[in-house]
Design goal:
The complex is a heterodimer of chains A (68) and B (469). The N and C termini of chain A lie far apart (53 Å). Helix content of chain A is 57%, strand content 0%. Chain A is elongated, with a radius of gyration of 19 Å. Chain A contains four helices and no strands. Chain B has one domain (12-464): Amidase signature (AS) domain (Amidase signature (AS) enzymes, Alpha-Beta Complex). Helix content of chain B is 37%, strand content 12%. Chain B has helices spanning 9-18, 23-41, 49-64, 107-114, 157-164, 181-187, 221-231, 275-290, 303-321, 323-328, 335-342, 349-357, 359-370, 401-406, 412-417, 446-459; strands at residues 44-47, 76-80, 118-123, 171-174, 190-193, 214-218, 261-265, 294-298, 376-380, 421-428, 434-440. In chain B, α5 (157-164) runs parallel beside α6 (181-187). The chains are: A mainly alpha (68), B alpha/beta (469). Chains A and B meet through α1, α2, α3 and α4 of A and α9, α10, α11, α12 and α13 of B.
Chain lengths: 68, 469
């Protein structure tokens, strides 16, 4: 059986952010991350990294409607 | 002329301009409706009764003196309680900011003031604009005016509920993951978020720098067109605001759907959708097809990546914004909010940067997949029937987490993509609660989504219906 990933996540949050787990719902919310992790894992290797995060604003300008 | 509360925003403005009704009469009618019905809805946080009547009197005197009124002259409004007005408390729906008095006024409020709108006060909202349901542990939950005990949608809960209840004619909401479009959908009104960067965010409470949007909730697409023209455009106080010219959106409302091509992605947006929602959506598409629109169902593989990265952006940024309060005052947040914020801290910085860096490429990919040869992407705005407040209440039962998070599944991707997106009423579910049609277009094509929404509303009457309170 795989170890529960939640306690190490809580410890890492405490270490890096100084934030304590506020309630049981927060703990459940962390468990909800497992699905997201699987989605991100499935995406690995499918998309190229872009050097400039600001490319989004350029894409907004470039993708304007011309003629559909 | 219709009963005053049944007028749309533009009808009210035009009636005041013509002298058919005074601004004072409009304000008095709004105050009477709020007094009579908001006890059930709980949409108002602060009502500025005397100030509203003074503003109305000034408009009426100006008109009598022959002065031209602005495009919203004499129209009563209230706004989500996160738009700062210098010297006035802006609670942001929270306990933490219950007494916060900003020193600046939001640019959008200044623009609405200049257009002649009457600001009557502030509206209930999700705490710090961070839930899609309308729960608020500090000011009381906002209730759906169509049926008590049901969600209003959030985070602009008071904005959606009060416009549906016809308390006044226009309300600002904000939209980071669907917070304008969800209450518009769930309360049966019209709500639009523009292209990312289209509207200034100066003097507006931040939630997520990358995805926050300012926009209106109103009765009709025509109302939204006038409202958006007034508030859009570059603002020197917001360096992120776009410099693209703002067209006359109302002039683009031709009512003609011929030649309009509408794409319907088959992935993602229908996952777990309720049958009544799919039927309502299909009926809306058919109404547009009968008026000349071409409907194409297509595959859009990029949605999988878009949905995953969408989840990373706002939760990381919200966690950063709230870090100090989460360390010092976590107990002053509602349970659902502190738990949601907590989920932002374990996201590694490299994944956050990855989500940002792939936003441009994914926008280009989405446009290539869904908008090559098509003007509009259409989806249901909400996959399910409107949930009750109880079944999405995390504070009462943490097991409601997944149902709570699912509410914004169909709206969030358009925040990551930054596309202009509107939600308009398209029917009622089997419990008599509204359903919404979501329409998106290419960047800065607000005129396109408004024109299609307006054309739809010319052949349907969903947007004219309002709850019997």
């Amino acid at each position: 059986m795989k170890p529960d990933p939640i306690p190490p996540s809580m410890e890492a949050i405490r270490l890096w952010s100084g934030v304590e787990c506020p309630n049981e719902a927060a703990r459940l919310g962390l468990a909800d991350h497992i699905g997201l992790l699987k989605e991100l894992e499935a995406l690995r290797g499918t998309l190229a990294f872009e050097d400039e995060p600001s490319s989004f604003e350029a894409a907004l300008r470039a993708e304007q409607e011309k003629e559909a | 002329m219709s009963a005053l509360h049944e007028l749309s925003m533009t009808e009210a403005a035009d009636a005041v301009a013509r002298g058919d009704v005074t601004a004072t009469a409009l304000v008095e009618n709004c105050l009477a409706r709020i007094a009579a019905h908001d006890g059930k809805v709980n949409s108002v946080i602060r009502l500025d009764r005397d100030s509203a009547l003074e503003q109305a009197d000034a408009v009426d005197k100006a008109r009598k003196a022959g002065k031209a009124l602005g495009p919203l002259g004499g129209v009563p409004m209230m706004h989500k309680d996160m738009y700062y007005r210098a010297g006035k408390v802006s609670t942001c729906g929270s306990k933490i900011r219950r007494d916060f008095v900003p020193k600046v006024t939001a640019t959008v409020l200044e623009k609405l003031d200049a257009a002649g709108a009457i600001d009557m006060g502030t509206l209930n909202m999700a705490e710090f604009a961070q839930n899609p349901t309308g729960h608020n542990a500090h000011f009381g939950h906002c209730h759906n005016p169509w049926r008590h005990g049901y969600c209003t949608g959030g985070s602009s809960s008071g904005s959606g509920a009060s416009i549906a209840a016809r308390f006044f004619y226009g309300a600002l909401g904000s939209d980071t993951g669907g917070s304008i479009r969800l209450p518009a959908t769930i309360c049966g009104v019209t709500g639009i978020k523009g292209t990312q960067t289209r509207v200034s965010r100066a003097g507006v409470m931040p939630l997520s720098f990358s995805a926050d949007n300012v926009g209106p909730l109103v009765q009709t697409a025509r109302d939204a067109a006038r409202f958006m023209r007034i508030i859009s455009g570059h603002d020197p106080r917001d360096a992120t605001s776009a410099r693209e010219a703002v067209p006359d959106y109302e002039a683009a409302l031709t009512g003609d759907l011929r030649g309009v091509s509408i794409a319907v992605p088959q992935e993602y947006f229908f996952d777990g959708a309720d049958e009544v929602v799919v039927k309502g959506f299909d009926a809306a598409l058919e109404a547009m097809r009968e008026r000349g629109a071409k409907i194409t169902r297509l595959s859009c593989p990029s949605l999988r990546a878009i949905a995953a990265y969408t989840a990373l952006l706002s939760r990381s940024e919200a966690a950063a914004i709230h870090a100090e309060w989460m360390r010092e005052r976590a107990g002053d947040y509602s349970i659902h909010l502190s738990s949601r914020l907590y989920g932002g801290y374990p996201v590694p910085a490299h994944l956050y940067i990855e989500a940002l860096s792939r936003r441009g490429p994914l926008l280009r990919q989405f446009c290539a997949e869904a908008m090559t040869g098509h003007h509009i992407v259409a989806t249901p705005a909400l996959r399910t029937r409107v949930p009750t407040l109880a079944e999405t209440d995390i504070d009462a039962d943490a097991a409601n987490w997944s149902r709570f998070m699912a509410v914004s599944a169909n709206t969030r991707p358009f925040n990551y993509l930054g596309l202009p997106t509107i939600s308009i009423p398209c029917g009622f579910d089997d419990r008599g609660l509204p359903m919404g049609l979501q329409l998106a277009a290419r960047p800065f094509a607000e005129a396109r989504v408004l024109a299609v929404a307006d054309a739809f509303q010319r052949v349907t009457d969903w947007h004219k219906r309002h709850p019997g309170l």
